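Sequence in, structure out. Go.
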Amino acid sequence: MSQVWNAIQARWGEPPKRSSKQWLELYGKNPRLRPVYKIAKDVAAAQWHLYVKRDKEKAELQDHPLIKLLDRPNPRMTGNALMYLTQVYLGLRGEAFWLQERNGLGSPTELWPLPPYWVVETPALNRPYYRVDFHNGTQLMVPAEDIIMLAELDPANPYGRGLGSAEGIGDEVETDEYMAKWAKRFFWNNATPPVVFEAPNIQKEQAERIKEEWMERYAGYWNAHKPAILPWEAKIHELGKGQKEMDFVESRRYIRDVAMQHFMIPPELMGVIENSNRATIDAAYYIYAANVLKPCLDLIQEHIQMFLVPQFDEKLIFEFEDPVPANKEFRLQQSNDGLKQGALTVDEWRQRNGFEPLPAGGDILYVPIGAVPTEVGKAKGAAGAKTVRRRGMTPEQKTAAWWMFEKAARNQEGNLQRALKRYFQAQQDEINRRLEDLLSAKAVVKDVDNLLELLADWPQQAQALMDLLRQFWDASARDGWQAVQDIFDLPVSYDVVNPRVVQWMETEGAEKVKDITETTKRALAETIAEGIAQGEGVPKIRDRVSVVFRQAKGVRAETIARTETHNAVSTGTFETYRAGRVEQKEWLATRDPRTRDSHIDIDREVRPIDQEFSNGLMYPGAPGPPEEVINCRCALLPVIEGVED
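Output:
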């Protein structure tokens, strides 16, 4: 190997490529190099981690000299700045150099990124050092082991200097620069008149008069497109072409597109969104992350792992987080499946998805209760009696099941809360518009009830609320059905459950809408009546209305969203059990300290499927007294029958 390397290694050090300094200076001036900035900023923002190998596994380190070095490579720079400059140099010139400062033990304590044109000579045979020419005139001969060279290899000479991707569009970048400078000089100091008049035998006085008349009639944008009449012997000669004739706009747009294609940057990521939508933007970022950003991160990661990590400990592993969105979605789906199938505990799922472990009850495995183990090779019709027994759930399984139902209830809660805020805001806007007109008529200001009916089209408001809630009820009921499938694997299609949910929405849902609307009307009636009694004018009464809706958009919207999504999930759950011919049900109280006393009292209470529990409810969240329903987060379990030999 040493003989091959001696044959390949240069006999003399290589200088930087031509115009390295000019390229770096042009980077901050030419917009066609903006893709390099985009990539470098994203590389700098990428999150990385340091691990250590331990018994075929790896554990993440939170405190280590290498972490401190990469977080603060030198007194003048942050770790973000180091990665940014490194990627800029790689993108423009295909190479980046890190000068290492060491302590007395020989370990790196500082990293200084060097512009490629500072490195005027690389190591060569019998000359194992870099020659660095600093901008202040200082020149150093640096041993090869004290500089880490990161490089995009040049296929023409893979053992020499790097090759930057920007070099491939050098002509396009220079052409764009020339067009920009031409346009600047055109506006700054263009001494060429657009036209020259040729008029034989004309006197100087006549020429001055014609010029003055011409400027008066045709100069300025307000005289644009007016026709001109010349004496028959006069002629006009056009002297120069403008930017329109030279098609600069289209040319620069073409060069812009060429630059984006060259750097493989989708136009959406550079702000070109004329023909884009959310789907194309998401797809554009996926293409960019997978084909541009990740390879850049891989190159830096490989160099750090190969040349920097071994100087601390060969058991260390340096890794960037995967920036590709699809991989994040895959990992989320993988962890969800692991939780559902009993491969991950609740706390392991939370840690994988960026959540803190639960203070208690999270170190449990969720196992589908519908899965009954069967001995391999034993036929269903084999001889031997089998007795049917009730197969109970362990406390850990019940807690895991409650968390699954809680997750289903929260799935639509945030979306519904935001939708309710918009609904109440629209309702407030309509009332404010009508209020100013109605209160100006003295005939109605004394009749609060009549005034209240005139403030809004309440039947229309109720219908709008019904339409809004219906979509969230249906989605949450489906989430309840899905939770049952995930936990208990009941063979029930949602097409069977849906008609029962629709019936519940049309009956019980209509009552809920009526209650919500009446609550709003009562609050408005009380405050408006009080304002009129005190002789308040329109501005103060409008302030009272704002107070009512501030509460509606705040606490009420949160309470309604939490209650209605939970109730719909419970309804979907209950109707799924009924459709699946479950004969008995069990009340599962909330598994945290916020459980109300009346629900703690009936925790684990078992009843026939169509019989009410002792608190009068058919299931958690079923129609009943507000104190039993509002903000309830209890769940409903089926009593599963199993078999044993």
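Check: Confidence is low (pLDDT under 50) at residues 370-391. The chain is about 50% helix and 10% strand.
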